[in-house]
Design goal:
Blueprint (H helix, E strand, L loop, with lengths): L5 E3 L2 H4 L5 E9 L5 H18 L5 E5 L12 E5 L7 E5 L7 H6 L9 H4 L14 E2 L1 E8 L2 E9 L5 H20 L16 H9 L5 H7 L2 H6 L21 E8 L1 H11 L10 H21 L11 E9 L1 H4 L12 E9 H5 L5 H13 L3 H13 L18 E6 L23 E3 L11 E4 L8 E8 H7 L3 H4 L3 E4 L1
Parallel strand pairs: 5-7, 10-12, 12-14
Antiparallel strand pairs: 1-4, 2-8, 2-13, 3-4, 3-6, 7-8, 9-15, 9-16, 10-11, 14-15
Helix pairs in contact: 2-5, 7-14, 9-10, 10-13, 10-15
């Protein structure tokens, strides 16, 4: 995939929060020298870079020029000689062995990013040194490996990140077994100007000032932003951050099926999906816990107040018919569902009613609406500190969930010569306490081979105490670990 030495990224990349998306994959190893595993990981990553040169780039803040007068734009500069290294970290003498870690559920509290990740994930400098597209570290324990990697979110999202890991695993497997599964990329997959080309072909361009003036607050929110004209819920900056707790819950395949049945009881029209049902159950039960923890005098959680549910949505299937599914840039939209606190938490409101409201919000995000939001993204005069994100706060009655349940992760094989379990992961986890100082967090982790899946929930301690005791919730979601 030939790319220019320096390229501006897409407007959708520019509106993403400038953070690393961080993951830890737990892989069981066969007996043998860990140096051989490390060598395979580094060589396979080098081959991945040959096939996907975006990984050899570093992201910087660009200076305004004749192409665009906007400030805060990002550009990715090529470093052909630079190959992401896999940092070697032997924890076998200080950490529990792999069996013990797996038996404990790979506890979230043990996954310290300061130990498991290269320091660059929290120290990126977009002005001088740039942010690497990928940072990786191999953490070896007795009998296994915790492979930790961070992907710079403004140029790779969850969907394209999965493709990246599949490509890395393909090369690791090929190095061990001299054969790898077919994994082909569309020739335009790494063209970060592709969205703009499609938009220009399918829309009538108007002056940016007109787009900014006519864009509705709903269009801003679809981008994951708060319109300048809209008030934002801001917490007291002088208040100390609350004490938070993360819990991993497990939802078996049978309970996932039961949730879908409950969400389709006595409904008219198209059925709700299992994912609609899960989001409805999470939204209601989490807001119940937040309501009770806040107390009866809380104005934020009064019955007539509106709760907002923000869900991330991959736009590849809807943005345009000619956009390849293997497009590597970011294309994440936010769908928003609204319901009063009283109605959402009432026992008289069925799960089907909540799930249907969510389904209608998701279905309303058409190709036209996505392209309207893209038009707004490309018209913004500043992509820096002026952008306001609705979910980076503890204030208000808003919830934001990210679902990776549809992303294949547990069928990705790194080869079965050096790796046990067919080279597939036992667990996938984010590091602990990533956003504790800024917001609550809910991430639905990828579906396992059993058809069940885990959910990471981070709430204030008093809210989590209530959620873990909520009969409606724990009927389907079992506590794995903290």
């Amino acid at each position: 995939m030939a790319q220019p030495p320096k390229m501006r990224v897409s407007p959708m990349d520019n509106v993403m929060p400038r953070i690393y998306a961080n993951f830890i994959i737990a892989l069981r190893l066969k007996p043998g020298p860990i140096s051989a595993v490390h060598s395979i990981l580094e060589e396979s990553l080098r081959r991945t870079c040959d096939e996907l040169p975006i990984l050899r780039r570093k992201v910087f803040t660009a200076q305004p020029d004749g192409h665009s007068g906007a400030t805060g734009l990002l550009e990715a500069k090529e470093s052909p000689e630079w190959i992401p290294e896999v940092v070697f970290n032997d924890l076998s003498s200080t950490w529990p062995d792999y069996d013990e870690l797996v038996d404990s559920g790979l506890e979230q509290d043990a996954l310290d990013a300061q130990v498991l990740f290269p320091p660059g994930i929290y120290e990126q400098d977009l002005h001088n040194n740039g942010a690497c597209a990928l940072l990786a570290q191999a953490n070896f324990v007795e009998g296994g490996l915790l492979l930790a990697f961070g992907i710079f979110h403004p140029i790779v999202d969850g969907h394209s990140g999965t493709l990246l890991v599949k490509l890395w695993a393909k090369h690791a497997k090929a190095l061990q077994q001299n054969v790898g599964p077919a994994l082909e990329f569309h020739p335009d997959s790494a063209d970060y100007d592709l969205l703009d080309k499609i938009w220009k072909a399918e829309n009538v361009e108007q002056p940016p000032e007109i787009t900014l003036k006519t864009a509705s607050p709903e269009t801003w929110r679809l981008l994951g932003l708060i319109a300048p004209s809209e008030p934002s819920e801001e917490a007291d900056p002088t208040a100390p951050p609350p004490k938070m707790r993360s819990t991993i819950f497990y939802v078996p395949a049978t309970d996932f099926k039961a949730l879908r049945a409950e969400a389709n009881a006595d409904i008219q029209g198209a059925p709700n999906t299992a994912n609609d049902a899960l989001m409805a159950k999470l939204w209601r039960c989490i807001m119940k816990a937040r309501l009770v923890a806040a107390g009866p005098s809380s104005a934020e959680y009064s019955p007539e107040n509106t709760s907002l549910l923000d869900l991330t949505l991959d736009g590849r299937a809807r943005f345009s018919q000619i956009l390849p599914s293997s497009y590597m840039g970011t294309l994440v939209f936010i769908t928003t569902t609204r319901m009063t606190i009283g109605k959402l938490t009432s026992t008289d409101t069925s799960l089907a009613e909540i799930a249907t409201a969510i389904r209608l919000s998701v279905d309303a995000v058409t190709s036209k609406r996505m392209q309207e939001a893209f038009g707004l993204a490309r018209a913004l005069p500043d992509y820096g500190d002026s952008l306001k994100f609705p979910f980076a706060t503890f204030a208000g009655a808003e919830a934001c969930f990210t679902s990776w349940v549809g992303l294949s992760a547990f069928d990705i094989s790194f080869g079965d010569v050096l790796f046990a379990n067919g080279g597939c992961a036992d667990y996938l986890r984010p590091p602990r306490r990533e956003f504790d100082a800024f917001c609550r967090r809910v991430v639905i982790l990828p579906m396992q081979k059993s058809g069940g899946f885990e959910i990471l929930v981070t709430l204030k301690e008093e809210e989590m105490d209530l959620l873990e005791k909520d009969i409606e919730f724990i009927r389907h979601a079992k506590v794995v670990c903290h």
